[in-house]
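A protein record in our archive is deliberately plain, so that people and models can read it alike. The tokens are whole numbers drawn from a learned vocabulary of local backbone shapes. For reference, a complete record is included directly beneath this paragraph.
>
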Amino acid sequence: MSKENTKQNELLIIDATNVILGRLGAKIAKLLLNGKKVVIVNAEKAVISGNPETIIQKYKERWGIHSRTNPRKGPFHYSRPDLFVKRTIRGMLPWKKTRGREAYKRLKVFIGLPPEYSDANLIRFEDLNAEKRLKHKWIYVGDLLKNLGWKGITEY
């Protein structure tokens, strides 16, 4: 088996459409820690469970927290869905250890479906589908971030 074949086997392209964000993040973090390269597409279509008004209010309060003395020190709040999802997954990795940082470098997240991955086999986690699992309300990551100031989808 050549090196290119093993690299292709390690690359997983995952569709985040209608998938619960927290559960997706936990699975992705485990795959990254096991050495896989992961690409997530349709990040704006991931789902956060709960009452949408409550979730929007919670994130508005969270975004009010910042350093007044030195704004470069954070905390940083991302308004683009790809960065938002990537930061969620980073919170599930052991970031302060070399293993966690190396795993984080193997992660790529995209808004929509980029042309270079359009003909690839997408992995869909049907067991994490919000429409099947949840019996209560939820909000899409894209809708949440539009309420918080995101301007919209960047087309490829």
